[in-house]
Write the structure tokens for this entry.
Amino acid sequence: MSSISTRTRQISGFQGYTHILTRSADLLIVVLAAMLAHIMRFGTLGMSERYVWAVTIGVVLASVILPSFRLYQSWRGRLRAELMVRLAVAYLVIGAGLTVVAFFSGRSLDFSRLWVFGWMLNGALLSILVRAIAYPVLNNLRARGKNRRRVLLVGDAHSCATAYTHLTRVPSAGFDVNRILLVGDDDQDELQGRDPQQYFPGIPIEHEEEEVWICLPVSEGKAVREIQNNLSLSTSNVRYMPDMHDFRLINHSVSNVADLYLLDLSCSPMTGWSRFLKAGEDRLIAAIILLLISPILAVVSIGVKLSSRGPVFYRQERVGWNGRSFEMLKFRSMPVDVEKHGVQWGGAQKKNTTRFGAFIRRTSLDELPQFINVLKGDMSIVGPRPERTVFVDQFKHEIPGYMQKHMVKAGITGWAQINGWRGDTDLAKRIECDLWYIDNWSLWLDLRIIFLTVFKGFNNKNAY
């Protein structure tokens, strides 16, 4: 969980072009897969107007959904099993999106379900096939040294060594370190046998060096400006790689606001299309789940009512997105007056629950009413678990990064829960998992967590 994802634009000899080509190819595959499915289902290529509109909507959905599954990150030139699974699930989501659009537009009976199924199946298979052919070709081109860029590194020994190590480890990035110029008298042992030169004003750029990377900590702003001034006559691309290994970075990127360049150190991923997709995912899945579990809700409600006096639901103030409080619902598992003398964090095993309450706690059935919170928009299905206001006021001063977990909506389940960090387990470990989830959020990760929750999240040894 120590890896940090970045959402800045990719630069390399190959990756910039490959990403554009891959995205364009995937959208073309969506169209070709629909046409192939039409031939397989109806024996003709000619589509009626309503099918053409369906294909158009499918392309729009694919342009939004496919990138959210991180299909266009660097896969090191390999067709991995994880990539194939992501492609398959992405096309399932596209198919589900088409079904929802058709249902709410009242046109669901106008389309062949076999055609939609064949369309999605063909799309997934063609996407996998194209990658299986393209990756070996790209790897061969890289091995022959095609379209690579030579880089000059200027900075301190530690930062330059970091850049050199990463570029050596990932040759598919398309960069080769040509020279290293050091600022100051740093220890050169980190440079793994490289023979760096000493930095001096007026940097001469060799004609084959297309890139100059300034590798210095953010505290060395004066030195960065001096180096940049000395490169003012160079036509090479100049980039700044700040040494930020001591920063806690969450969903970091570079933003342009009113012609100001801002380095986003800690930002919520829930903006723009991501926020729209997350909200749609939550409400669609929550509505389906509530419909499916309605008999269970009725049985548990009766059990709570018969096991002790008091209301069926237990309402508790919790802190959610952006630190705002909301009223979270649970099935009541304790007597009504058990907290009249105050509340204490932890000690779940010692809490005074009813016999039926102990059962629904152990099986997590007491959490089911929170799907109502999801429909209301207070919570998400996947996200950090919310905590009471009184404990948030305490923990935010004790645990580094605690408040950053409120950069997304609180969830019924999450990355911490499926990894066993729930109940009276280490709170710092839970926060680490929550921040990892925020930094790596995608629809694919949400679906993966939901899938794992079904198999190991509800009945957990740490649930009380």
